[in-house]
Amino acid sequence: MALDNIQAGARSMWSNEVTPTHGGELIEWSGLVAKGYGEIAYTLIDIGLITKSSSVVKMATQTENVIKLDTTTAVKVGQTIKPTEVTISIDKISLNQKNVIELKRSDNLLAEQRIIGGAADSRVFSKLKIDYHPEGTYINQTSHVSGGINLCGPTSCAMIISDNKGHTVNLDLIVRQFDNIRPSGVNIDEMSRVLYKNGISNEAITTVTANHLKELSLKNQSTIIGVSVGNQGHFIIVDSYKVVDNVGYYMIRDPYNGAMGVRADFLYSKMNGNGVILK
Length: 279
Known about the structure:
Shape: globular
Helix content: 25-40%
CATH architecture of the largest domain: Alpha-Beta Complex
Largest sheet: 7 strands, antiparallel
Oligomer: single chain
Low-confidence stretches: 47-95, 101-120
Structural class: alpha+beta
Mean pLDDT: 75
CATH class of the largest domain: Alpha Beta
Order of helices and strands: HHHHEEEEHEEHEHHHEHEEEEHE
Number of strands: 13
Strand content: 15-25%
Number of helices: 11
Distance between the termini: 39 Å
């Protein structure tokens, strides 16, 4: 389930679209629950409220659209909680024709966001991402023979090394230079050492700020930064910063999702402070 959620999170990271997990799709395909309820059942399994998807079959398909669970013991922050009944009301969730749950903000909230100091905020109407065709090398982590789900760090290093050498290096050769690639991947210190081995001076830091990133990007200095994907971390390369229609964008090479320009305010909200600064 963890890898399934990581993959779904990575796929939807730079978009506003809901990306289904393979587990949720499988539950619906099996016929255990009605179409549109697979993700709900899969989520309940994942958080430990239920152990079998079949236990929500009858309740999920009833006309009252309420899922009720029997007495459950849940442990959170060292405390034991024993609810007599857990009820999840889904009568206000509607599915569109693509069976995607849509969440809409109130008109009042949208109106407040559109007016800032008497002027319209262009970010509300701007695209979250734009096209970007990098001059540097692009390598996708999933091209590795292992499938590459935990190779965002090594793949980012491979792209930087390729840029430095002037030709695309073999991803597997770079992967082998890491001593211990864990299911969660590698850290910035390990990435820094591999870059040094390949003749690239750098500094691994845990305090990359928005201002620091913008300063480097305005110089077109590529930087590896860490971003958050749910509860997981992910590494990307930020190449430069540019303004399009009065909106700032960072040109990035995401080893999982491809090369693109991402709106600055959105990238700032994802940054976790980790980074490898090239010298």
